[in-house]
Amino acid sequence: MTKLQAKNIVKHFDHNGNSIVALDGVNLNVEEGDFICIVGPSGCGKSTFLNIVAGLEKPDSGEILLNGKPISDPGPDRTMVFQEGALFPWLKVIDNVEFGLKMAGIPKEQRREISHRYLDMMQLTKFADSYTYQLSTGMKQRVAIARALAMDPEILLMDEPFAALDSQTRDLLLVELQLIWERTKKTIIFVTHNISESVILGNKVEVFKNRPSKIKKEIIIDYRRPRLAEDENLQKYYHQILDELKSEVIARTKDEIQ
Amino acid sequence: MTKNIPLKKSRGSIEDAANAALLISTFIGVWQIVFMLGIWPKISLPSPAMVAETFAKIILNGSLEQSIGITLARLLGAFAISITLGTLIGFVMIKFKGFGKTLNSFSAGLLSFPSIAWVPFSILLIGFDEFGIMFVVVMSSIFSIMISTYSSIRNIPPIYVDAARNMGAHGVSLFRHVTIPAATPSLIIGLRQAWSFAWHAIIGAEILMSIVGLGHILSVGREFLDMSQVIASMITIFAIGLLVDRFILNKLEDKIRKKWGLDNHR
Predict the structure, then answer these.
(1) Is residue B183 within 8 angstroms of chain A, CB to CB?
(2) B261/A132 Cβ within 8 A
């Protein structure tokens, strides 16, 4: 069943008075339970696309359909895990996880129960009453994932959530995220510039073209899970994506020099 | 490790108290020496003991307590008005961006406007009464509150707002649960500044406009050539300013900064 559909999404930006085309007709079909990874050269508009799906930005034309219905505003049915720094420093870990539930008007006891369940899943139970500055970057991202999952969204959006992590923590979270995906059967859209991340996580990898962006190629990765970073068999997918991306990165660099 | 922290803290506060005591006794000592050198006549520069005597006198006859009470009541009343109105205007400035930007520049000009310069205006507009004094205090502190509200909210990292909207917060709930708490550490700094402006203003206004209050006993001291009373009033004004800033506003700011993780904890 089609969960989410992006139809011909176009987005311009103003840059020093010039209009730059960031997205030039992005079309994407996301099936229920898909784990979609979007890779592309930096600045290609993949985060912009995710923000549009989240409803935080509006497209100039085109539309996003969720379960067949068009959406335009942000909503708890599409929760986002941001790159970093999006936890609220004035709230304890557990209150951060409960924030969306509170906004949805869910009673306190039920909120506690739900948030404890997700803190438990992310192995954060011990830190429920800590403030976020007391956590490491990896733990903060785990809280962010728990917070997004606690809303029980239709789709989980992830915008380079592991970019700021050290490689050991990232490898660990890459495995954890696959387990969570299998356990919760969530539909996930995951944006990254890191090819191996996309190969490990995605069952479909969408390669974005350099600006003006659209989807250049979809690569299906049908391989057992949990996938590990060091798995040799993933190399062929890695190279397949790398080949697609190489020319885009070169084009991007040329843009930047000129 | 956790056991060491309170120990270290109490040692720190004992040290602070010792340093303060040393500073105060040095000051009194120098004062006493200058007094004994007889450079100025007694009437112009009394000894510390004479000032202490005056302190005892005005405390015993109740005039000091009464003055402190009246001054603080005026100040708190005016400061409450300032906070309420200033915050509301700050919110309006955020809501209407063009208006906010213009008003922000004007307020910045009025921020450096001397509080005493409001006195003649206030006397002619309102009169020599409580409201006239409070008007001066409000005008001296409200711009600081307005500017701080405006800039604190404008400087909130957009990611907090994005994250909150993403989780379904909007309108009043977004404002209450994200905008206000995110702006709080910066709002407190504005509050401290406004308090210090208000304190300057009330003493100035009372010297010129009042028949009771701390500023008034200061000015009575001058009229009766009673330097002891002038110095005693000054010490009282200094002490209250210090106590409020150190033990209320600074504590509050520290607490909030700590909770937000803005201080270095190691």
Answers:
(1) no
(2) yes
